[in-house]
Amino acid sequence: MNDKRMSYILITTLFFTTHSYAALPPETINPDINGGKILIYSTDGEYIDSANVGNLPDMVTFTPDGKRILSANEGEPSTDYKIDPKGSISIIHLTGKKVQRVKTLSFDDIPLPADIRIKPGANPANDLEPEYITINKAGTKAWVSLQENNAFAIIDLVQERIESVVSLGIKDFDSIDINTQDGANVAPAPANIFGLFQPDTISSYTLNGKDYVVTANEGEYRDFGDYVDYAKGSLLLKKGAKFSRQLQDDILNIQGRRELHVLKDLGMDADGTYTSLYLAGTRSFSIRDSNGKLIYDSGADFEQKLALQYPQNFNTRVAKTDNKKKIKKLQKHSSPYETIGETAFFWEGVDARSHKKGCEPEALALAEIGNRVFAYIGLEKQGGFFIYEISDPQNPTMVDYQNDIDYTVSPISSGDLEPEGMVTFSQDSNHYLAIANELSSTVSIYQLDKNGKAKQLASLQTGTFAGGAAEIIAYDPGTKKLFVSNGESKTVDTIDVSNPAKPTKSTVIDFSAHGSSLQSVAVKNGLVAIAVE
Question: What DSSP letter does each residue of 27-71 carry, written as one string?
Answer without folding.
Answer: HHHS---SS-EEEEEETTS-EEEEEE-SSSEEEEEE-TTSSEEEE
